[in-house]
Amino acid sequence: MPAKPRLGQNFLNDTQAIERIASSLGDLTGRMVVEIGPGAGAMTSALVSRAAHVIAVELDPGLAAHLRGEFAAEKLTVHQRDVLSFDFAAAASEAGQPLLVIGNLPYYITSQILLKLFAAGVRGTVARAVLMMQREVADRVAAAPGGRDYGVLSATTQMNARVETLFTLPPAAFSPPPDVFSTVLRLEFAPRFEELCVDAAGFDTFLKASFAQKRKTLANNLRSAAYSPQELQAVWPAQIPPQARAETVALEPMAQLYRALTGINKA
Question: pTM of the prediction?
């Protein structure tokens, strides 16, 4: 099946990498797996031999038809749709357990797919995901506070999941070869909102405001988000330097600051 670059299609053709990625998802016995962007079905073949059932979410109608013709219906269900419209909760309810997810994410919607998976993780409908993405994006997802790659995507991801960088693949592992290297990450969904005593929607908004302008300090970004200097000074945690930028602050003190500011705003 020919790839369509406009859809971000680069088909993985390295058989060792395919086996390694499928194995990274863990024991699939009795499990339902959702594969995002299965393409021509190379990874799908490795999954249907391991899992109880695979749901392939494929936007391309030609590839969706190809997959239906390649695999038995009792092992594979194909949803010809954009993954952003896929109902993970309904699939998990049908499976009677949280889902496992695997996929090679197109660069242009990687962040949107991650946010959808985080929402599913908060609801307990997704347990684990093994995802391949552009190396530069994976570096941002897995970055620790204080590094140049740490930002709102890092913080948001790490509020929702434990992230493990597995390995990186060269362009030659794909057909056609992309212009970038691709990194495989494993995400164990373990939302930290309850642990850190913050509400998911409010804290997500707070993180976006905190990282709004990278060159600004955290305090200046929050002032731009309508927190007054007096509010900030009254509750500023001792472990956050006054001139700190958001990318240097760990999630725990960030949550402490949010809780204190929320208390002030409710008073």
Answer: 0.92
The whole-angstrom separation of Cα 178 and Cα 9 is 9
User: Hey, what are 130's tokens?
Assistant: 């093994």
Residue 127: phi and psi, rounded to 5, are -100, -40
| pLDDT tens-digit series, residues 108-138 | 899 999 999 999 999 999 999 999 999 999 9
CB proximity list for 76: less than 8 A, separation 6 or greater: 44, 48, 53, 54, 55, 56, 67, 68
Domain 200-266 sits in CATH at 1.10.8.100
The CA distances from residue 31 to 27, 50, 98, 113, in Å, are 8, 9, 9, 22
| Tens-digit pLDDT profile for residues 184-200 | 999 999 999 999 999 99
Q: How is residue 68 written in tokens?
A: 């239906």
CA distance 44 to 262: 46
Domain ranges of the chain: 5-189, 200-266
What is the distance in angstroms between the CA of the first residue and the CA of the last residue of the chain?
61
